[in-house]
Amino acid sequence: MGHCVAVAALLTFTSINGFAQTAEVDCAKPHQPIERAICANGALRALDARADAYYSMLLEAKPAAESAPYREFRESLQADEQKWRQETRDACGPQVSCLASAYEHRVDELRASASEHLALTASAAAAHTQKPAGPLIDYKDATYRIGTQDVTLLGGQHTAPAAPDSAAQDVTRVVEPPEHAGGKLGGRPAVAVFLSEEGGGSGTFYYAAVVFADGRGTTFQIGDRIQPVGIAINGDDLVVSYLDRKADEPMVVPPTVPRERHFAYMNEQIVERPAAQPAAQ
Asked: Of the candidates 64, 137, 150, 243, which lies 20 to 30 Å from 176 by C-alpha distance?
């Protein structure tokens, strides 16, 4: 199919011929156990919405000409979506880690398909689906407060000797996936992201981090050798989802226990909200 189509034209959606069908789970009335599992987890809801955004973009974007190759592609896309839902997503049942992995791979596949078939770049797609209004925030070239130190990332990473004259390195980096999230915290445009920190020992510590338009941010330590699942800004609520271990499990056990925590940004710090009192949506 033709690729010489302007991005603006490609993002003009149409609802003709019954193709304006959404793949997103309707959390107002989830019927199946797997739908209830997705709706009960903020990170999975975000992944579901992101996958649906790319699917709808591919399904409904109207090219310059409604060519036969594009119609064939659209039909195969619908069949592929149905197959993925039945054979991959639904096969996970209510297992959060399996669902997160299935959705992350599906988002990658749909993003690649958008680039191939609609001449869209990943940055254009992300701008259409998630970027908040306001200044561009370069979260990979920013300074984050970690404990009592300021750590400046360049290209998403900071490396320094673990100790004077030591060959061991302390490495702090942006963790993606899951993708970063945009929104407002404390009335200011912000980006939320996971950071990891590795030193000379065996641990890898993960942080929830927020950074603002001035290139400065702060962090909150989430845990050691966890598995990040998602991060989102919902109103003034910073929502972090990840997999952890049971209290009596050693670190060699892969994390499988889903956890979701809510934070606020107050006095230039990330502060955890009481579990029973998440921010009003």
From this structure: 150
Q: Which amino acid is at 158?
A: H
Q: What pLDDT score does 281 carry?
A: 47
Q: What pLDDT was estimated at residue 60?
A: 66
Q: How confident is the model at residue 17 (pLDDT cuts 50, 70, 90)?
A: very low
Residue 82, C-beta contacts closer than 8 angstroms, at least 6 positions apart? none
Helix (H) or strand (E) holding 76: helix 68-84
Rounded (10°) angle between helices 96-118 and 122-129:
120
Q: How far is residue 95 CA from its own chain's centroid?
A: 18
Separation CA 52–CA 269 (nearest Å): 33
CA triple 144-194-218, angle to 5 deg? 25
Burial 1-14 (b: 16+ CB within 10 A, else e): beeebeeeebbeee
Q: Which residues pair with 271 in a beta bridge?
A: 264
Cβ–Cβ under 8 Å, residues 5 and 52: no
Ranges of each domain in the chain: 7-129, 143-272
- Look at residue 164 in the predicted model and tell me its pLDDT: 77
Q: Of 185, 252, 197, which is closest to residue 221 (Cα–Cα)?
A: 197
| Token reading at 131 | 């970027």
* Cα–Cα distance measured from residue 4 to residue 87, given in angstroms and rounded to the nearest whole number: 35
* C-alpha span between 150 and 237 (Å, rounded): 24
Confirm if 105 and 80 have CB atoms less than 8 A apart: no
Indicate the pTM of the whole model: 0.55
Q: Which residue type, as a one-letter code, is found at position 50?
A: R
Say which DSSP state 89 is in. I
Peptide bond connecting 178 to the previous residue in cis, omega within 30 degrees of 0 = yes
**What order do you get walking across the sheet with 269-272 strand by strand?**
227-234, 237-244, 257-266, 269-272
Residue bearing tokens 């956890």: 259
DSSP 46-69: HHHHHHHHHHHHHHHB--SS--HH
